[in-house]
């Protein structure tokens, strides 16, 4: 071994110490994942070299074929993994192996459940896969040299996973990284060719470059002591999975490839593998994950597909190929029409990208439609994870608005499970009453609040189904989703409710007569409530409650007002419409009240109660309590 210089001992970042402690003492349920993670990192290193070499061919240093080699020594109890990818400089090693960005370790530690198997699944997703080596090793040596640096600028990183690491400068003739794992007592099973081959076939067969092991000799693995004497054999397919015909790829292979590109341990819900030929030529392999990533609702988090051009890796997280509301989709796209030196700036302006984005978006939506049709239970699992993100679609993607609407799911007044969003719009339309030509909905803070809202009373009486919208995004969604399948959406809390043909001519005539008869009471209430209300009128919505507050046709609903207020934005001023039920006993007593002061107190109590029933907060709670107490004292006398 060459002489080490500039040797120093450094401490790990606090989060890394926590992570190492977890790896060493807790995650034993699936030890073999260490090899999957190290191979995945090595594959990424070769991808990065290919990409950087497009602009700097000299980084290839003579053009040696890219590969990963894994060897072992039973006597020394070591496993060695070597790649000839981009490699690391001394600074890279300190940065990448000694510290982790908060988005990695800290979030990883936050998401731990205490279940070993589940927690081990998180390792790759949070970009902390290297440290899985300490599950089986009590010491790890890393020898690396970044492509383009001199042989004398190699680096040796070493740690026993106990809070610190050593780093030194060494000579390293070849670019790339060599990792030597010194196996713990009891982990000698991994210093075995048959065991390593099986792990590679299980997890890494899809890796698109050769993974080589020493060739078996006379039925036994006898790795030779030197590189020149060892015969190597490729143990994986070493071809890009997406380039193979679909008929030749097994489901298990698709699933393992997903785990590689998504850094997920669970299987995807579904996938679509497609080759396009003609005006555009590209191949796509798209996956719908089985669960949401931790940063799904961070709209600026990393997202997008792996981009290849003519099978050459170009970039991770190319987000120009799918709209933001489909940011949960994982996979690869490999184009023959783009330039090898394409950049993010060019991607944003290239008309080819727009065509590909349109086609890939339709493919994802078709994939989801197929899942919803063929496996409603699995689609419901998808909806629980990604439904709120999909609801961003109608605002972002006008061309596919109808298609996205068909994929949305809502709770409704006919839902059997409390609050479960399982009603498709097509199913709602299929259950519509004879003469019904609108889709009715009500939005609010919670399922309990909207399900028991007085606004639904007339709909219950007539047996009309109403969609119940309780997600924070719903009111914003409905401002863009105005109709589906030719049927307009109607907010049952907004404007003057018109049930159209669902009300008979006799009903309409009776409503007009009552409204005319109660004009005096409406004027008296308006005078009492003053500037608190925009209008007072007889309600056609109520059957059991005395009063409700309706929203003006052009006014913001309560949800949107609360969102704007919470974000510090100015909320347009608006006043509710006070509707009363003329046949309710309280309203009848109010109408007969001769004392104007008492009439005003009762009117304000009814107004405040209506506001509470709508999920709003009172502007003056103290005044409400004072009036209510005054009324209670009067009743008790």
From TrEMBL:
Residues annotated to bind ATP: 37, 41, 83, 88, 102-104, 125-130, 177, 344
Gene Ontology MF terms: ATP binding; ATP hydrolysis activity; ATP-dependent protein folding chaperone; unfolded protein binding
Annotated region described as A, given as residue ranges: 1-344
InterPro entries associated with the record: HATPase_C_sf (IPR036890), HATPase_dom (IPR003594), Heat_shock_protein_90_CS (IPR019805), HSP90_C (IPR037196), Hsp90_fam (IPR001404), Hsp90_N (IPR020575), Ribosomal_Su5_D2-typ_SF (IPR020568)
Keywords assigned by UniProt, alphabetized: ATP-binding, Chaperone, Cytoplasm, Nucleotide-binding, Stress response
Localization of this protein: Cytoplasm
Any one GO cellular component localisation term in the record: cytoplasm
Domain of life: Bacteria
Main subcellular location: cytoplasm
Domain Histidine kinase/HSP90-like ATPase: 30-187
Entries under CDD domains matching the protein: HATPase_Hsp90-like
Sequence similarity: Belongs to the heat shock protein 90 family.
Purpose: Molecular chaperone. Has ATPase activity.
Quaternary structure, from the entry: Homodimer.
Protein name: Chaperone protein HtpG
Annotated gene: htpG
């Amino acid at each position: 071994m060459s002489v080490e210089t500039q040797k120093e001992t450094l401490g790990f970042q606090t989060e890394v110490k926590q992570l190492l402690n977890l790896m060493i003492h807790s995650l034993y349920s699936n030890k073999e994942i260490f090899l999957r993670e190290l191979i995945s990192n090595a594959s990424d290193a070769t991808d990065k070299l290919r990409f950087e070499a497009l602009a700097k061919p000299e980084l290839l240093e003579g053009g040696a074929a890219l590969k990963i080699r894994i060897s072992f020594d039973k006597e020394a109890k070591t496993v060695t993994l070597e790649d000839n990818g981009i490699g690391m400089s001394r600074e890279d090693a300190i940065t990448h192996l000694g510290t982790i960005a908060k988005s990695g370790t800290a979030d990883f530690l936050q998401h731990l459940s205490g279940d070993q198997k589940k927690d081990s699944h998180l390792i790759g997703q949070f970009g902390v896969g290297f440290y899985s080596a300490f599950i089986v090793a009590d010491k790890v040596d890393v020898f690396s040299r970044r492509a383009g640096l001199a042989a004398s600028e190699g680096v040796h990183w070493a740690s026993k996973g106990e809070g610190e690491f050593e780093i030194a400068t060494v000579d390293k003739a070849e670019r790339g990284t060599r990792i030597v794992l010194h196996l713990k007592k009891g982990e000698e099973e991994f210093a075995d060719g048959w065991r390593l081959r099986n792990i590679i076939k299980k997890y890494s067969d899809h890796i698109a470059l050769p993974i080589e092991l020493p060739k078996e000799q006379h039925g036994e693995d006898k790795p030779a002591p030197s590189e020149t004497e060892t015969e190597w054999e490729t143990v994986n397919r070493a071809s890009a999975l997406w380039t193979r015909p679909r008929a030749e790829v097994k489901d298990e292979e698709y699933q393992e490839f997903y785990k590689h590109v998504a850094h997920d341990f669970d299987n995807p819900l579904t996938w679509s593998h497609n080759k396009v030929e003609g005006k555009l030529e590209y191949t796509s392999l798209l996956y719908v994950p089985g669960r949401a990533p931790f940063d799904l609702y961070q709209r600026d988090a990393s997202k997008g597909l792996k981009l290849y051009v003519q099978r050459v890796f170009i970039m991770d997280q190319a987000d120009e190929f799918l709209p933001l509301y489909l940011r949960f989709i994982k996979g690869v796209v490999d184009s023959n029409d783009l330039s090898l030196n394409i950049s993010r700036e060019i991607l944003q302006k290239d008309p080819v990208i727009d065509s590909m984005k349109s086609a890939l978006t339709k493919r994802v939506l078709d994939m989801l439609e197929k899942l919803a049709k063929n496996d409603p239970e699995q689609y419901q699992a998808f909806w629980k994870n990604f439904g709120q993100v999909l609801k961003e679609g109608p605002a972002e993607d006008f061309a596919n608005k109808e298609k996205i609407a068909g994929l949305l799911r809502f709770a409704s007044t006919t839902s059997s499970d409390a609050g479960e969003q399982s009603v498709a719009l097509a199913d709602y339309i299929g259950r519509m009453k004879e003469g019904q030509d609108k889709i009715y909905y009500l939005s609010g803070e919670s399922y309990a609040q909207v399900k028991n809202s007085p606004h639904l009373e007339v709909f219950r009486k007539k047996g009309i189904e109403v969609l119940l919208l309780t997600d924070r995004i719903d009111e914003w969604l409905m401002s863009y989703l105005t109709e589906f399948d030719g049927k307009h959406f109607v907010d049952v809390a907004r404007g003057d409710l018109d049930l159209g043909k669902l009300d008979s001519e006799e009903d309409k005539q009776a409503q007009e007569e009552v409204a005319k008869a109660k004009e005096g009471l409406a004027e008296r209430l308006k005078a009492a409530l003053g500037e608190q209300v925009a209008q007072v009128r007889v309600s056609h919505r109520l059957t059991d409650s005395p009063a409700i507050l309706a929203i003006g046709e052009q006014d913001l609903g309560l949800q949107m007002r609360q969102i704007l207020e919470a974000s510090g934005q100015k909320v347009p001023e608006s006043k509710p419409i006070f509707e009363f039920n003329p046949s309710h006993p309280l309203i009848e007593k109010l109408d007969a009240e001769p004392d104007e002061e008492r009439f005003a107190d009762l009117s304000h109590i009814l107004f405040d109660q209506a506001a509470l029933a709508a999920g709003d907060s009172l502007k003056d709670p103290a005044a409400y309590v004072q009036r209510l107490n005054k009324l209670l004292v009067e009743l008790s006398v």
